# Entry
Amino acid sequence: MTTKDRLFQNYLRGHSDLPRDFEFSNCPRFSDIVVVPARNEGNFFFKRTLPSLKKASEKRFEQSGLPVFICIVANGRVSDSNEEILLQESFLEKFSKPVKTQMFNWVETSESFRIGLFNFISPPFRFEPKQGVGLARKIGCDLAVSLFDRGLLNSTVVFTTDSDAEVPESYFCWDREILSPGGIAVLPFKHVPDDSQIAPPEFAALFDSYLENYRLGLLFAASPFAFTALGSALCINLKTYVQVRGMPKLLAGEDFYICQKIAKFSQVFHPRGDPILLQARFSDRVPFGTGPRMVSWKNFLDEKGLEKNKATNFNEICFENPACFAELKKVRLLLRDLRKNFYRSCDFPIPLHPRTLEFLSTEKILERLKGGLQNKTNAGVFEKLEREIFDGLTEIRLINFLGQVEEFKALPYASALGLFSEMKKNYCEADDMVLIHKRMVSASSAGMSEPVGGILPTPAPPIMR
# Structure
């Protein structure tokens, strides 16, 4: 038995959330698997999401000669309202084969794909109140690990998307060589106006601009966590997935947390290609993400008494102040200095804003790192310690903490965008802290991808535009 075999089997024995009595027969060998959590879904899934996955599977079949496993994880909670339960049961009824009495069913088969449905909606199988999309995504990804371990999955990666996404025909056909050593990819995406036309169409482009510029700020700050985490656009190396013990079982934010866990020791890539189209829709099913951001912008315009169909009013919506990322960069400079001088005491000569010093003091960041200086004798080990102590979530909390004072308060979209544009021009010229980003720019011109934390060749340039 190889080390890799043991790694996968130990995971399946100790960390998998596949139901213990789960087993299916008549299972072929698959080229790929995609996991699609589904909760309270309407017609969009059947009109756009599922047809796009079938079409992408047919394209993949032309290359591999093997079918794709489309794994739908339909879920409800024991605490759901009667209205939600009716919507969930209606979802099950849309499948031609009766699926209510079993936890797993093959619901559609062709030479290029098989659609398998986990039924966590019927009463015996429903999730507990605090379980949701994280567990649903994990069950599907754990199934991918099991298939790979049994020799029934050709691919070394698992795809995961959402039931409001429309994937491109090339979805399964991108060059995954960058993930061969390990890591995770955030595939290209684009938000489009909600089919229901409830959310203003401008919100879609605005949200993409927000995500792109937030990530630009993190790149400027030389953050090891400069990624955009979207569960609807992930492709994960299975060995890496097992090494971080699977998808976090959270009600929301599982996509961010798995990217963060992987960025601490491996790579997060943003390859370029045909985008996955995502609905920019109002939603309150999770506490943060696309839906809640749409709702917050709508409420902001309502409170200001501004018309939602007037383009100039969108300039009043606020983005994070780019000055927050410049301050974060100072912190990363300080941490770099500690890393280079791990063997001696340091007086932290880099000037920081009092608000930043307050945050670092409250969180005991420097004290914890100083302890690491005394106990670690290897700079590489200290770098890992730094990523643990000052991780992506800590960066977000620092940016939010800074945003509470006047100097760093959020700016109207138009003003912030101008400053982000200047940052984009200059972020690879500021100092040697961003030398890696100079390399990224050179790599992109040579047709390479853009990883967080290093440079590896691949046929795709970075997503950042």
Observations:
- Residues 429-465 have pLDDT under 50 and may be disordered.
- The radius of gyration is 23 Å.
